[in-house]
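Regression report. Comparing outputs from two consecutive submissions.

Submission 1:
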Amino acid sequence: MTTRPTVRAANGLVASGHHLATAAGLAALRDGGSAADAAVTAAAVCAVVLPQRTSIGGDLFALVYDARAREVSAYNASGAAPRSLALDRFVAGYPEQGAIVATVPGVIGGWAELLADHGRLGLERALAPAIAYAEDGFPVSDRLAESIADDSERLGRDDEAARIFGPRGRWPRVGELFQQPDLAASLQAIASEGADAFYRGDLAERFVRGVATAGGAIAREDLAAFRVDRPDPLAVEYRGLRVFGQPPVSQGHILLEELAIAEGLGLGGYEWGGADLVHLMVETKKAAFADRDAHAGDPALTGFDAARLLDPEYIAARRRAVTAKAADRVEAGAFAAADTTYLAVVDRDGNAVSLIESVFSAFGSACVVPGTGILLNNRLIGFSLDPRSPNALAPGKRPVHTLNTVLALDGSTPRYLFGTPGRHAQVQTNFQLAVALIDHGMDVQRAIEEPRWYHESGRVLQMERRFPEAVRKALAGKGHEVAVVDDWAEVTGGAQAIAIEQNGVFSGGADPRREGYAAGY
């Protein structure tokens, strides 16, 4: 039994982080839009109704399957550090909030390029529902009211954030309409003039002035230099499927390395949710994360080649790091010389989009650029301040991102799309979803609702309370220090998933841990 039914449809399906976004994306499909049109429409609504998760001041990554070309494309719409910033600016560490910890926003450029490549309806149509919700308002959900209250101290320190999120002189209550007229005006300018309005036009000038007023460093030349990257997607063969992941600067290579290691462990032969299976997956995770910490950085400035992590000989060596006892620390492998919201969409023509966007922490930098309604990300804190790290802060460099999406093909057609928010939990939850769906043949909604584990560091393993006590005790016997968390722990993310069955029917699921909804027609 699951808390909600699996959604099934034959013409199109949207699974996103908010019901208003799902409804808007579904309307775009009904209007003749493609999966890309619906994805951007839903993503734009998320940027209005989920400010604790995403914003047009954030970043975006996507994998897109084009049914006509029968190929997968990757989009990296993440921004770089301002060119005026370097390590010596943060000798005392990063501040808790403020415009100074924002990188160049990439969401707008990502939306525009997705539509230019794969859309049918245009940017104005795609942004119309988001503009309406920003201008006319939308009812505040329980989750949003709780998030604003939880971050009220940070929001209250920024005059513009306090004005927008507390328009009545207090924080909004559940069910009250929440309006963002400045954001509506910014979205309207983008809808009318295209992405250049933000990166080179009048909105760009007002944005830069506002950032400077707020103490930030993003300049006109930083905006003008922004480009959406189109790197070749990474992929591994797993249990007969070709699983695609997001290439760097995304951490999607972690999931693919986990799956490559797991391919030789026979996870389908272990009891689902049992101690032996969980142990093998956790130790696999540790090996992949150790490699990330040692090697990952912006390929444009470090030469990092994630494909080397997936080399069969390298994977065979890493598989030997998965031992029978819980490791306190796993060493990285040696190369041979040489807050966030996710959505998935499929359309009746077989096109598919797996997309994630984020402002990093809850409410990002907790700083709204005056006069624009744009909430800034705090992605700069994703850089290491250790100059020896491949992910060390440098001017014009992109930080390593936790953001990643997944798309699996069966032959030349999509079989699964899934993803989740949740920072370092993302590739761990995606790993659990992949094994549940592919190795154990679960329905998407059941796979999403199964109890989850989460590992941060050392031997401490967080496990949702719904795991049987016998499993937790058995894992303790293997050396794990089990910490029990809530039945539905938000730290493990808020996943959405779509499966395409052999008869062409779409199955969608959404996570009860957050506000996600799936719908189709």
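Submission 2:
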Amino acid sequence: MATKKNGWGWMHCTACVVCALVMWASGPMAQAQELERDLQKVFMPESRVKAIEAARSGGDALPPLGLPFVDDFAWPSMYDEDAPVNVKRWEASPVRRTMTLAYQPPTLGCATLDGLDAVGNPYLLNPTNAQGYADTLTSRRLLLAGNVPADSVALTFWYQSGGIANGADAGEDSLIVEFRANVTEGDPWRWVWSTEGIDDDTAFHAAVIPIDGVEYFYNEFQFRIRNYGALEGNVDTWHLDFVRVAEEGTTPAPLFEEVAFVTPPTSALTYPWTAMPWPHFVESADAYIATSMPTLHRSFGESTNSQENVGMTVQRVDVEGNVNNYTPLAGEIPNNSVQGLFETDYIQDLAIFTTLFNPALSDSFATFHVSLWEDEVGAANLTSQQGVTDNDSLVHVQTFRDYYAYDDGTAEKAYALDGQGGELVVGFDVQQPDTLDGVWIHFTPFYDDAAGETFTLKIRGDDPENPGQPGSEIVTQYTIHQPNYYANAYDGFTYLPFESPVAVEGRIYVGFVQQGEERINVGLDKTTNTNLDYLWYKFPTTPWLQSGIEGSLMIRPVLRAGKELVTSVEDVASTPPTSGPVVFPNPGTTTCHWTLEHVTSVRILDMTGRVVADFPSMGPGLQSWTTEVPGMYLLVGTTEGGQTWTQRWIARP
């Protein structure tokens, strides 16, 4: 196994990266440090296994496919993805397509075997160093009844252990392929191939597996790919690309002349941002648009290839907006092979690109699809593919909402502070004076369930004596929070409101201080790298320290940014509670209670000013309200005599 725990709770890592920038020789803070950790991965529960088996053999099963079977995971080929049936290649499975976890895959997109369930939640947070089968990716049924061994039918694919994520361990973990035989009794699955783990591998390897047994030549044939290894964390990761079953198929795909995308861009904005509030952007768009958008490509085949019809389209999709095209220069194409990597810069004229984001269409929020292609835009032209998957085009979604972000929305690792009272903050340069409402944080589970641990949010200004590092608190936060590891989405964020809106401008720092020693893990995006400039941490006995761990911490400050409020929350939230009824327990979990002396109308508002509950006439006595959404709420009461009162209530996760 890649990772073990000793009795103190310290992680002894043989395959995960652990960075310790500062340590003390003695005393209670001797182990205090910042850590980079691997993500949670555990075994699939029996209920999920049964659901998958039912989908595979029941009425929801997909019809069989003929040969060739080809998937390079650049298109929506998974069972649960929104695509026509003829595009899907796999039975129901929690395996997902990823674009950033592998390192330089053959083509854009991979199938990644990990331990998150179908909605992105961890299966278990308190494992006991277990080993076993983790994910399983099962093909649709294939029509092989008309084939014979002489046809040289074979399964081929490329695989990588780890990539940007953590690799499987040699001698302990493995990737396994099984074929489904035509039998009526017993287990139909037959082991046909496996390979041991390769610690932190950055190379893709070819697998060639002949399908030559007569028991496989029937019209219900399937193959499946499974990983065996650690069940406690995402430390034994495998990535699959260009899976192919074909006659005379003993050479790994692709067998044709092709130019394909390898990696997507992270942002159309200049460093360090991947997202920013739209009203902040449109005031000075020229300053924020990236002057370079390089994309990595690969040239396949035995002869020299050339890009054709290289281009970019930008379209606003949240409202009926403008569509603009731009043609960059084609990239330099090297000769043949899977190693034929080259770059194309899709932005080379700042003035042209700026016009694509038309400020005349400005609003509070905006979303653009930045489509990049070479040779053809395959996503809308699947009929011309002839078995070749859609790897010659991609769409980058550029979002402008009410927050700043440095990350691309995907966590490849986890970041944590190891030590009681550890505080971390991320610096953001707010481009216009605005009002800070809260913060989005992606809490990443790892080994122990820290959901019961507590922390308080922090908002700091710039240190006037040491510009560029955290200074004093702008507004002290007293509300106790707990991390949420079940966001019901892959890489899901949790919104945490500040106790009242805060006026901010210039450099601010947002983050939290943990009250205990247990590590509160936050997602770490490894495809962008802003930590070295903007992430700071400290412990009670240390000064501020600048992070030495590459990546971008997945914390996003949320600003008012032109949003229209149903009610002016700022004035209400900053006013001390009147002599109205006491709201209890406060903080609470899902239900708050209060006692009325008179008939009163009560409205409950969230921190955007939206009325989430309205009780026009509540009688005297004990009253209550229940919510499943954590956050801070305002209870505004008005008696029949016209007297008003306001109370604040905190709902913990």
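Expected: both submissions complete independently.
Actual: both completed, but the second showed a warning that disappeared on reload.
Relevant detail on submission 2: The radius of gyration is 27 Å.
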